[in-house]
Amino acid sequence: MTRNFQEFLLEYKKEISSNKIYTDKQEELKNSVIKQILFIIIISISVGVSACFFISPFVGISLMLLIAAYTTSVIPYAEREYKKFIKTKLHPKLISLIGNIRYSKYCIDRCEISNCGLFRETDNYSFSQSSDDEFEGEYKGINFKISETHISYSNGETLFSGIMIIFDYNKKILHPCCVSDRKFIDKKQQASRVNTSNQGEGLVLLLIFLWDIIVSIKKLRRKRKEKKRITLEDPLFMKRFIVEADDEIEARYLLTPSFMERFLDFKTKFKADSISCSFYDNKFMVLISTDKDLFETGTLFQNLDDPEFIIDFYDEAATVFNMIDYFKLDEKTGL
Q1: Does residue 50 form part of some domain?
Q2: What is the pLDDT of residues 44-53, one digit of tens each?
Q3: CA distances from 96 to 120, 135, 287 (A)
Q4: Model confidence, pTM
Q5: What distance in Å separates the CA atoms of residue 245 and residue 117, rounded to the nearest whole number?
Q6: Residue of 172, 182, 168 lying closest to 327 (CA atoms)
């Protein structure tokens, strides 16, 4: 059961008005910012004037500007502190108001990412995950997990940054099937070239060589077949996505014309830079690439009751429920 926006808004306003710790924290940090900036300005002027008098005007002005420049770090630091406080104290309550969903750190682990097929072992990647916005829940009998995730090579070159969502899938999946946005493929290839060109020599190359041998042995032991590319009937879908699967018949069963149409529409509606998905282990994973910082309810200098933030938070959190309805994931059918 999910609340509509008006019901959520009512509960949201109740929480904000009945609990002053959020506005108190906001005022505390804003006052702290003002005091720090004033203190830095006073020190800057004092040091600058002294240097002008005892050394030279050039040195004095330089020191004044150098010290004053430190003020640019005060506001971002306070902003991060405020967001961290809100995400810890307020967001768990808000997210539970929408439906059966709760915050859950590290709910999507490396094993899930490795198994989905969108990131192969040969990609030689390492990844880090945001611990700010990760939740899991259930809707219409479908369990799901959602996480803001950053996946990159060891040198920091980004492979993927955005939202990763995993749903339990009611249709039986015998063979993995991946649908990769061509922009996502281009991003991986670009990152791979940079990663390869930046690799060191000597010991690093030896370690990479040994790692490649280990990966090859693992693949032989598991007898994993390389996925083959599948061409489907929808030309627009094939123009935007690359489909890879072990079994073409099952891929066509999963990627029906109605699914392809919905997937294309979903990318447009979500305004994502790229969107990819994978069917594996009776699960359905969706990767949504976006640079937007999601699940925000305000900033240090904007009130929590700002309508724009409230609407965005609700829409972003409710997206996962809408996806279950939109892709009809609760329908139970067998191969």
Answers
A1: yes
A2: 888 888 888 8
A3: 35, 10, 23
A4: 0.75
A5: 10
A6: 168
